[in-house]
Design brief:
4-stranded mixed β-sheet; 4 strands; single chain; alpha+beta; flat
Length: 128
């Protein structure tokens, strides 16, 4: 669930199962799993969750790189912001659109009417 993290909790609520989103690591042992959940600024949480559970797995191949908080604070103390008008940009300043085209059509998507259909698809794909 890469966009806004809503699919996992919604599916978990319909299934009445626990849910952990933004998971970057899973270690299963018996009827529980220890999961690593990513937070901003490179923070990591470790949770133990009873199985079965719904996990929203982080899709990145590598963990994101976060700027250290000390560096952010350093920039806050030393940086200053100023205002510029469009005339200050000079000739060719600003932005322009070079090309526009409608998006390419893909295979399309199947719209499901209810949760039962979603559960059937997940079962067929081996996700449940």
């Amino acid at each position: 669930d890469d966009r806004d993290g809503q699919l996992g909790p919604i599916v978990a609520s319909y299934m009445n199962k626990p849910c952990v989103s933004v998971v970057s690591g899973v270690f299963v042992s018996g009827g529980t799993a220890v999961v690593h959940k990513e937070y901003s600024a490179g923070m990591m949480g470790e949770f133990e969750v009873d199985l079965p559970a719904v996990l929203g797995i982080q899709a990145a191949k590598q963990s994101p790189r976060y700027a250290p908080v000390s560096k952010i604070r350093q920039v806050q103390r030393t940086a200053s912001l100023g205002e510029s008008g469009m005339g200050d940009l000079g000739p060719g300043g600003g932005s322009s659109v070079a090309n526009m085209a409608p998006p390419e059509k893909g295979a399309g998507a199947e719209m499901l009417d209810n949760v039962e259909d979603l559960m059937d698809v997940l079962k067929d794909k081996g996700a449940l």
